[in-house]
Design brief:
This protein has 50 residues and is mostly helical. Helix content is 88%, strand content 0%. The protein has one helix and no strands. The radius of gyration is 22 Å and the shape is rod-shaped.
Length: 50
């Protein structure tokens, strides 16, 4: 019977953890920038229309 490769499983868990953490960080940063981007987009429309 083959010996289980625990180091591979551990590495895969670490990669999944890093990916999840990075996605969470991106969601937090994008959430903050959405508020900033909305008024600037409206301001650009006002300048072109005026």
């Amino acid at each position: 019977m083959a010996k289980p490769n625990y180091s591979f499983e551990k590495r895969q868990k670490e990669i999944a953890k890093k990916k999840k953490k990075e996605e969470k960080r991106l969601r937090k940063t994008s959430k903050g920038t959405e508020d900033d981007q909305a008024p600037t987009a409206e301001n650009k429309d006002d300048k072109d229309g005026g």
